[in-house]
Design goal:
113 residues
Length: 113
Amino acid sequence: MLRWANAVMLVLFLFWAGFQYNDPDGLLWMAVYGVAALECILFFMDRLPRSFAIAYLVLCAMWAAILWIAVIADSEFFFEERGREAMGLMICGIWTAVLIRTSDRRAAHTATS
């Protein structure tokens, strides 16, 4: 089940990366979604480095928190670009957390087998 979800997220991250072509800071967001897609690929191959995933998760969480503070202060929420960017970062971070947790479980299962 998780492999199918990971495949769906991979396609979504690639789609979202491509969708950034006309954004003023499109290269930045292509990189954000590109790294999330790369994590999905590495997860499929059982080669997702835990430290890399945790660093990306922390980056996404901190950046999303900063954007959320700005969005809430402006009372714009999802109708403003920063709100949508914060949601994208949250999606990347949450999926990364899922991949880290699953990788940890795989490693623990392999170690006990």
